[in-house]
Amino acid sequence: MYLHLGGETVVREDDIIGIFDMDTATVSYKTRDFLSAAEKSGKVENVTAELPKSFVICREDNTERIYICQLAPVTLIKRSGKRGFGGR
Fold first, then answer.
1. Side-by-side strand order, sheet with 44-46
2. Are 3 and 17 spatial neighbours (Cβ–Cβ below 8 Å)?
């Protein structure tokens, strides 16, 4: 199955490592450092020009890719129909 992240971006659900809330996850300096390093190495893709609410980490072809989304994590989890994401 596939998950629509917004805009024209779709990822395979099997490739998703995690879906994270932008507000709560970026409180930690470790998360901010991780996202900053990923952006510098070209692994981050913004799928929106709007205020981001979540980020999704995927492993695609043995490479990590991070998608910045305008959709809330709960919305993405509901779209997936899977209970395993986000501890649900």
1. 16-21, 54-60, 63-69, 44-46
2. no
Q: Is 0.85 surpassed by the pTM of this model?
A: yes
* Extended strands (E) in the chain: 2-6, 9-12, 16-21, 44-46, 54-60, 63-69
How far is C-alpha 65 from the geometric centre of its chain's CA atoms?
A: 9
**What tens-digit pLDDT sequence spans the chain (88 residues)?**
899 998 899 999 999 999 999 999 989 999 999 999 999 999 999 998 899 999 999 998 889 999 999 999 999 999 887 655 554 4
Joined tokens for residue 46: 């913004």
Contacting residues for 74 by C-beta, under 8 A, at least 6 apart: 86
Query: Please, which residues bridge with residue 60 across strands?
Result: 63
CA atoms within 13 A on the CB side of 31: 14
